[in-house]
Amino acid sequence: MVKCSPRLLNRTFAALADPTRRRILEHLAQGDRCVTDLARPYSMSLPAVSKHLRVLEYAGLIRRRRRGRVHSLKLEARPMRQALAWIEEYRKFWEESFDRLDQYLKQLQAKEKK
Amino acid sequence: MSTQNNPTEKIAAQPFMITREFPAPRELVWKAWTEPERMRQWFGPKGFTGTTVKLDLRPGGMLHSCLRSPDGKGMWGKWIFREVRPQELLVWVHSFSDKDGGITRHPLSPTWPLELLTETTFVERGAKTMVTLKWTPLNATDEEIKTFNNAHQGMTQGWGGTFEQLAEYLAKN
Hints:
By secondary structure, chain A is an alpha+beta fold. Chain A is built from five helices and three strands; from the N terminus they run ααβααββα. Chain B is globular.
């Protein structure tokens, strides 16, 4: 089981639910960016981008560094890794159960043949 | 008049589905799903051990079991059967529970749906059996449906073509 705070996890999920925010995260995986870099490909206004960035920051998915007047943004891998691991968990639950059932049924039938 | 802004309007739940073809006749697969001694051989992720304390296989009946993780932690679960059609269909309401059978929240997510409708079908394919399991939130709030939808769509859908690059970044950092 992956352990992380339910409250943070919910914030992370809420942040990941929006397609624009997912694009921003993908963009940041290629390297740190400033706010204007992030606004350009989506022809979004700076306030609109800033709003998305605040949600991502609140969810712990990105970190902001100020260099003078320029804000540089960095993708924080850990909370995102945790959220993705949690997402996979119940699929894993059934997939691993099905793997075991497959093995079990094979064993049973091998025994019968003997 | 448009109902778009109707606050009682529900968000559509996206069911979770998993299908597998098992190399065994349907009769045997059904037994493996419905007999506690057989179920404990496979139910749960790798390394988990399950103990069924109660099984009443009929509509309205209950399965109550505890899954123990490799580190020894117990997680109780409860199934209330809705439909039992031997070797064909098993429908139950799936929830987390305490050891007395009371419904509880997901241990990690307070907005995970309390109840999931589980429909499992068994289809004969010659000497093999195709099993399909479908999970849909039941009596869920919008927030619970959102949590459920996000959980299984997050990985596979809704990411652009650069998700692999993102996965690489996450692996390195």
